[in-house]
Amino acid sequence: MKKMKLIIGASALALIGLVLLAADHIDAPDVTGGSSDITDFYAFQGENTSNLVFVANIQGLLSPSATASASFDENVLIEFNIDNNDDKVEDLVIQAIPRDGKMYFFGPYNPSTTGLSSTLPQDGSEYGVSITPYGSSAIIGSKGGMQFFAGPRDDPFFMDFAQYGEIIAGNAGGFNDPGADTFAGTNVLSVVVEVPKSMIGGSGTINTWVETKMKQ
User: Fold this and answer.
1) Please, are residues 180 and 162 in contact by the beta-carbon 8 Å criterion?
2) Of the residues 65, 159, 201, 205, which has the fewest C-beta atoms closer than 10 A?
3) Alpha carbons 78 and 105: distance in angstroms, whole number
4) If you ran DSSP here, which 8-state letter would residue 122 be given?
5) Which is nearest to 70 in space by CA: 24, 39, 109?
6) Which helix (H) or strand (E) holds 65?
C-alpha cells in the first residue's frame, strides 16, 4: 500500500439534501502557489439528478501562458472525503493521482486509514483518463456509472477584491452590480468526478471535504 502524508488542510462543506455548491480561497502558507494548493472545492447535484459531482481545483491564478506548461504533480494525491453518518470521519474516499499523462482514480471505497495518512488500493480497481491538454476539448472517461475529468479550466470563482478592499477600508458600502472579476483570464487545474448517489449512501445529508496529500 502506498502511504501519503497530509500537507494541507481541507476545504470542507456539509452537503444537505445532496444539493449544494461551495468554494474556498483560503490558502495554507506552506503550500500557497505550489502544486498542492487547493483553490476551490465544489460539490453539487449533477445534470443527471441521480448523481453527485465533486470538483477540486488546484494551482490557481495561472495565466494562459503558464497554463500551457502547468501540470499535475505526480507526488500529490487529491482525495475527496465523504462522511455519510455525520461522525466527522470519512466513510468513503475518492482519490486521484497523476501518472504519465493520465489521472488515475480510485473509489469510492472505505479507506483502511483515515485522517492524516492515506493509502492507495493495489487491487487493479483504478481507472485512468488522459489529462486534457490546455486548449483541447475535454477528455471525459467513464466507468461503472462514474465520469472523470482532469485538466486545465477557466477559474470559475468570482470575487471583486478591489471593491472588497474599498469596503474594508470604509470607502464603500457594498459591492457593485456588476462587479469586476478579479480572476478573469486566469485558470486552474481541475479534477472532476461524477458519481451515482447510490454509491455514496447516507440518509440524504453528507459532509464532504477535499485534501491534497504529498507522497512520503
Assistant:
1) yes
2) 65
3) 9
4) -
5) 39
6) helix 64-69
